């Protein structure tokens, strides 16, 4: 038996672009992907804080330092520039692995620069 756990998270990123005329996915600055321990082409769930939309897509590695968060293809219908989103990846672990697992939680500033990286998250705490 395996348990699905949060693997990595980018919290309250700002959408910089929505490109409907693209094959699909979400382009994310390489610095953010690395900090969250999310791989290129990895499946992610995206939650739009502004409108409540929740959807799944896969990642494309954006230029390092660009601070890009670009929704591509059909996902571009789920958000617009300046919306705040939470981007999450998940891992499948055995119960023993799950007990020791700590996700990478990346908190960003309004310009998508990294503010903090934690390996835990507590209810009610705003980092």
UniProtKB/TrEMBL annotation:
Which residues are annotated as active site? 25 (schiff-base intermediate with substrate), 58 (proton donor)
Question: Keyword Magnesium on this protein?
Answer: no
Q: Which Pfam families does UniProt cross-reference here?
A: Asp_decarbox (PF02261)
Fill in the PTM field for this protein: Is synthesized initially as an inactive proenzyme, which is activated by self-cleavage at a specific serine bond to produce a beta-subunit with a hydroxyl group at its C-terminus and an alpha-subunit with a pyruvoyl group at its N-terminus.
Reactions catalysed: L-aspartate + H(+) = beta-alanine + CO2
GO biological process entries: alanine biosynthetic process; pantothenate biosynthetic process
| Localisation per UniProt entry | Cytoplasm
Which InterPro entries does this UniProt record tie to the protein? Asp_de-COase-like_dom_sf, Asp_decarbox
The protein's required cofactors = pyruvate
Q: How does it assemble?
A: Heterooctamer of four alpha and four beta subunits.
Q: What is this protein called?
A: Aspartate 1-decarboxylase
Traced from the root, the source organism's taxonomic lineage reads: Bacteria, Bacillati, Bacillota, Clostridia, Eubacteriales
